[in-house]
Amino acid sequence: MMDYRNMFDFTGKKILVTGGTGTLGSEFASAFASCGADVVISGRDRKKADEVLKKCRIYGGKFDFVSCDLSDIRSVREMVARARDILGRIGVLCSHAGYSIRRPALECTEDDWDSLISIDLKAPFFVACEAAKIMKEQNGGRIINTASVSSARGHRNLSIYASAKGGISQMTKVMANEWAPYGITVNAVAPGYVPSDQTADLISDGSKRDELLSKIPMGRFGKPEEIASTVLFLASPGASYITGQTIYIEGGRMID
């Protein structure tokens, strides 16, 4: 029988959050920490990582940082292995690292393509595969990828980013299908516009801000905690029969 009252109790659960030093990644780490989990975050900025870990440690669990260069698959593999060594196991992978390039398709270079696809699609693929190997040995786990509303919309100036995030959604489906026999669920969250490092320039520009808001039925931007709460749900017992799905968290943008 489902224990509904304690559905978000992650006491003793072991969580790996990639991209854990950014606006959303740090919120994911803090959310899991507040629910009792032990968390390892990965990234490249040690100073930002220390700030995130300081916030997490008020909840009394085990928290650590592993540096990782996502453009180097060897570094990716070492990061996942190191996280497992620190935590003892990996029960949940929250794969969030990535960035965007805003530029018309005709102005994008081969370097733009190679760089963004490497970080936003290739790296998450191999992070998930490395985590799944561990989870297979453990007879189960949860993988939560990060897609985007741009993966299903034709937003101008985001051709490479949308390609990568569309790939994340399709990758999520295939991995879910292949790994279901091992007790592994694979889903993705797809945020709309949320104030963050990546959207600061858009949201701070009055005319662009108003244009974006006019396309959101709820009339406001999302909040980091609204994305984090969906991540918590997908990692919880309540989502045990959900796999292969991309959940859009975008204030109704997809239905407009």
Topology:
Layout: E1 14-18, H1 23-34, E2 38-43, H2 46-57, E3 63-67, H3 73-87, E4 92-95, H4 110-138, E5 141-146, H5 159-179, E6 184-191, H6 200-204, H7 206-214, H8 224-235, E7 246-249
Parallel strand pairs: 1-2, 1-4, 2-3, 4-5, 5-6, 6-7
Structure at a glance:
With 256 residues, the chain is α/β, with parallel strands linked by helices. The protein has a single domain (11-248), classed as NAD(P)-binding Rossmann-like Domain (Rossmann fold), CATH 3.40.50.
Query: What is the residue-mean pLDDT, rounded to a whole number?
Result: 94
> Helical percent range?
40-55%
Q: How would you name the CATH homologous superfamily?
A: NAD(P)-binding Rossmann-like Domain
Count of DSSP E strands? 7
Please tell me the CATH architecture by its name: 3-Layer(aba) Sandwich
**Given this structure, which CATH class is correct?**
Alpha Beta
What strand order characterises the main sheet?
3-2-1-4-5-6-7
The class by helix and strand makeup works out as alpha/beta
What distance lies between the first and last C-alpha atoms, to the nearest angstrom?
A: 39 Å
| Number of domain modules | 1
Count of DSSP helices? 8
Major β-sheet profile: 7 strands, parallel
Rg over CA atoms, rounded to whole Å, is: 18 Å
> What order do the SSEs take from the amino end to the carboxyl end, as H and E?
EHEHEHEHEHEHHHE
Strand content bin: 5-15%
Kindly report the CATH topology.
Rossmann fold
Could you list some keywords that capture this structure?
256 residues; alpha/beta; 7 strands; globular; 7-stranded parallel β-sheet
